[in-house]
Fold each of these.
Amino acid sequence: MVAEVRVLPGDAGVADIIGAVDADGVAIVADFVATDWLERFNAEIQPAVDRAKRYVFGNDAIDGFLGDRTIRLHGLVAKAPSFAELMIDERLLALMDRYLLPRCSSYLFSAGELIEIAGGETAQSFHIDDGSWPVWPRAGAGLLQMNVMLAGTDFTATNGATLVAPGSHLWEDGREPEQRDIAQAVMPAGSAAVIRGDCAHAGGANTDGVGRRAISFSYCLGWLRTVENSYLNLPLEVVARLPVRARELLGYEIYDGSGREDSGVLGYYEMGSPRALFEA
Ligand SMILES: O=C(O)CCC(=O)C(=O)O
Ligand SMILES: [Fe+2]
């Protein structure tokens, strides 16, 4: 591995993060969350991690991608209420405004996933998360989503720190990362890697048996189907207690494309905004 991921200090401004992510498709921001927030989140989520059962699709490609020594949990804000603070973090939303608003009038929270890699897990295949949607060829298709990979525990070279190919968001279609293109997002707990949806990456191999916990979450263009079905993963009474901005991101607001995008309205609830659900 010779490539490197740029590491910005914890107080890096939005412009600095954008500068690095524009250039490389990825950047790490150190100390992105406070230690006490991370302790709170990890304590809240632990019972769900302990109960987690692996879902088997029976499709080798999907099951292999998700990993057989990896715990994955959705519905994060129902399992760990402190996640609500992270999903509406001001700096993150300023980044999403910059990357996603040029192509939609509002964006959505696409998925929040706890990804805990245990000993013996092998590396994932390289992919782009924009590949969730069948928009091919990729060249010229534009960015569909942005991912944030927060280290819930230390990410090390041997416990599965995310592998990434800096600059791959600018590659032509079909180019696969070679060894010299690959960097590893080695970072202490609390750091965050911001990864463009068109930047190639993969979960790393865990060869030392030390658990690697990621809080991986993404935002997508508001007219796409979200990766996670939060309408079903989050009970309505949980959603009702969330800040309004979090509810909007989860789709409890109408998508109004009738302005700049010259398109239509999506996500109606009874011919109006789902916001009405909380305004009784
Ligand atoms: O766990 C990781 O480091 C990466 C996981 C990933 O990229 C994915 O599941 O899409
Ligand atoms: Fe991914």
Amino acid sequence: MILVTGGAGYIGSHMAKWLHQAGYPVVVFDNLSTGKRSLARYGEWMEGDLNNPDDLTHCFERFPIRAVIHFAARSLVGESVRMPLLYYQNNVAGTLNLLHAMADAGVKHIIFSSTAAVYGNPQQLPIPETHPKQPINPYGRSKWMMEQLIEDAVSAMGLHAVSLRYFNAAGADPAGELGECHDPETHLIPLVLKAALGKRSAITIFGQDYPTPDGTPVRDYIHVWDLVAAHELALQALLAGELQGYQVFNLGTGKGYSVKEVIHTAQRLLESEGVSIPVQTGARRVGDPPVLVAKADQVQQVLGWMPRLSDLETMIQHAWCWEKAQR
Ligand SMILES: NC(=O)c1ccc[n+]([C@@H]2O[C@H](COP(=O)([O-])OP(=O)(O)OC[C@H]3O[C@@H](n4cnc5c(N)ncnc54)[C@H](O)[C@@H]3O)[C@@H](O)[C@H]2O)c1
């Protein structure tokens, strides 16, 4: 059985569905702090908290777990600046508890949700896995600590682990069953679509004087369905013994889209439905680098992964179907 921590969240719920469809038995473990029970539609369900070791012990006793895919974390940058201790407690101490529980149960395989935030401000573009790790906020630092914890556990405990550093996950389940519902929402595509539906007054472009072709920040978006597909490839390789020790891969496409490109593409796609998107402009936000784009060749070469749905139009269309259905 595959344990999906954080499986009631945006990405974890898609992972549980993907694994279920691929024939893996799944158990979702989540404390519903930011997740939704209604998103955990696939596999066995266990409500539990990484910060409660008894919940983890119970989970590993109850289910015959072969591998863990670890999504559970708090992941709002601004919140992490206001409440750093919460982030270190939940993310770092929670991961420590998970590693203890895995050791007690003899579980040797883990895939970890890391983030491009471990790199901080890019010193080279596209960003390779070997780029210095200089996270600039407690969220990014917590993720870098979690990676280091896992790497140390690999050497000491004979684990085999893969950290996947996601750039910007976007889009929704192509079948329309699952999608993004963060509260508060901080991701660009759902914010644009909420403005289109009148759930927000407008989408704000923060800064138009960045050193990018149209002056707005450029990010590397990856469709959530492509993202979870890469996890299955990593899982297969781990379970087959083809990936050993500790491995790290960026998960992005290597192609960036600017804030204006995202908004203009959404405007063009929604025009046919008679929907317009109110846009306003604001000052630059602190801590937003001009460009964050992955060097994404490693995951393609080693795992044979290819993005299939990560073009901007498909990501927006799938996210739009989901947002409309939430009305
Ligand atoms: N969404 C992105 O673009 C993105 C980018 C980079 C990295 N990530 C990472 O991917 C993972 C999933 O992100 P997401 O967007 O799906 O977030 P999410 O908030 O939708 O999901 C996280 C899930 O973890 C659960 N959780 C949190 N703390 C827990 C705890 N102590 N015990 C049990 N469950 C707990 C939450 O209830 C939630 O269901 C996170 O680790 C995040 O840092 C996401």
Amino acid sequence: MNFNLTDEQQLVRETCRKFADNYLKPKAAEYDRSHEFPWEHIEKLSGMGMMGIVYPEEYNGAGMDYLSYAIIVEELSRGCASTGVIVCAHNSLCLSPINYFGNEEQKKKYLSRLTTGEWIGCFGITESNAGSDAAGTTTTAELKNGNWVLNGTKNFITNGGVASVNVITAVTEKGIGHKGLSFFIIEKGAPGFSVGKLEDKLGICASPTTELIFDNCEIPEGNLLGKKGDGFKIAMHTLDGGRVMIGAQALGIAQAAFDEAVAYSKERKQFNQSLSNFQAIQWMIADMATEIEAARLLVYQAAVLIGSGDRRKYSKQAAMAKLFASEMSHRVTHKALQIFGGYGYTKDYPMERYYRDARITEIYEGTSEIQRIVIASNVLG
Ligand SMILES: Cc1cc2nc3c(=O)[nH]c(=O)nc-3n(C[C@H](O)[C@H](O)[C@H](O)COP(=O)(O)OP(=O)(O)OC[C@H]3O[C@@H](n4cnc5c(N)ncnc54)[C@H](O)[C@@H]3O)c2cc1C
């Protein structure tokens, strides 16, 4: 596979790198402390086409390729991992199912406003008893007098509360497990819809994670996304694409931690010499550099394969990219913090934030254990 970037892809990388260095990085610590949603970043990114990265220009999207998308997420996450996941959840989890499974009317109404950033999107499958196992979903949707009536609660929803468009799963036929799930589009302000608890988290603190509550929530019949009973299929298709970008997020966090650790190892002196003179530190740096490159190759390969559009071709690679990149990010941020010694443990330096932010990439959009299940089932058949 050829990863020589085209002129456009190079430009995308340079533009996002500059944006991350000039806007995201200087404010990331403050947003981490305040837990505020970084509206100023999202407004600027909207103007750059980053809220509709791979979507068709006829729906106001930027029409870029998936490798560019991965590069964008990697670079943004280098500056601020919260902004990285806000962009991922919006692009991959909300826009993708509407683009692939929505009808023309839904695309015109929702996609065209989401791609410009006028509306933010979120995606909800998780519930208190449906985490790794979507078949545990208990939120229901019943068709009554020409409207869908939804009841239940989703939890841990990224962009919850700031989203104008919520795409969520609900049971439309009981007793048949995941085959009874369907997807729906719920607009902010729909009667009976509210946002519940805002989670107080270890990392990615500027990215809101909330409950979505449906209490006899009424939405038009036309807000069914795809066919009735296709909810699980839509969720898996969406997550296969989304998890590659979580791999890119993990990669960006690791790269940020690595760059700072290398610079620090050259500046910091102990025993009358730079830390970088010690072989123990050199080996850590060598291992980190190697792992980051390996993860980048897996993430870029999976991103290129998503562009093929055939899920059978990229499901395994997407799981491998996410699994390796997220666990790599854990190991790299651990070592990078170690190179900073006690200073790495303080909030005077970004190391502790990188370490906290990296951890979630092993959990959301399918835990590492679930990625291993996907990989093994592809290998074993
Ligand atoms: C910050 C954050 C943001 C999130 N954003 C979203 C979002 O936008 N939309 C959304 O729908 N969800 C979201 N989630 C939910 C996330 O995807 C789930 O937390 C995740 O899928 C795991 O589900 P769970 O937490 O219920 O853990 P569980 O499923 O209870 O798993 C607990 C442990 O058991 C392991 N386990 C479970 N089943 C198996 C098995 N079969 N074999 C081996 N091990 C297993 C898991 O790997 C894990 O280690 C978010 C979560 C967080 C924390």
Amino acid sequence: MQIAIASGKGGTGKTTIATSLAKSLVGSHKVHYLDCDVEAPNGHLFLHPDIQTQKDAIIRIPQIDTNLCTLCGRCVEVCQFHALAQTADEIVLFPELCHGCGSCTWNCPEDAITEIANPIGIIESGITPDGINFCHGVLKISEPMPTPIIRQMRKYKSLSRDSVVILDAPPGASCSVVETLRAVDYAILVTEPSPFGKHDLLQIFGILKDLKIPAGVIINRTDGHESDIEQLILEKQIPILMQIPFDKSIAAGIASGRTLVELQPEYRERFIAMFDFIESFLAVEQVC
Ligand code: SF4
Ligand code: SF4
């Protein structure tokens, strides 16, 4: 089963939930934790994995053989990302705009294009002291495209159906979030009772509706002002999976690199119950 932890807004406690869910389930399931926030991964600070493998994340970018190129301009025409431009005597590539889609290679009538590897970051994997299979991607500074790393992370390990794969999504509602959510079985949305939390939750609801992914919400840092956000979630007919009250001692503990279930072990049972609810919900969905 693949479960994404997403938030829309940054800083709502997504990694707090993802790491604590992983730690709660690892005693009874084979758990994979994938930190897909490749621009600022931080799951390792809480799970302390022993990194055992490291490999380059690459995209394949075009290299043009000027001896074969007739400057017909077809590659420039088909590039949807404006990564190629034609001058009087050459085709110029802007590698930072190239998505490695291969359209130019495919369409070149002279077979003048070959593809070469362009490293955009690294993917590291290993195991945590409590046995969670850990993987995260780290985008190179100045590289603008996180999605190819996320795509490669998802292929990196054989993620069997009997494992629980927890994908810690990037914040926001951009294409890297869509890439993380693609093909997951369920999404846990983490929000907070603030106008920004409400606004961004609405955005992510829209994405999930388009992708047809069922979801539940955790309201983090409740402080007695959550009726607005509860109303919104109710209107969307989405279950509230858990509420976590604002607590300075939790905030201080998390800031020092401890997970919620380490700080308050009673949450372990709550995470297990939440997972059981999701599992039962998906089993009923499958039957229907
Ligand atoms: S499509 Fe091929 S031949 Fe035409 S301009 Fe591009 S590289 Fe040159
Ligand atoms: S691989 Fe795709 S994005 Fe990159 S230059 Fe070719 S057509 Fe454009």
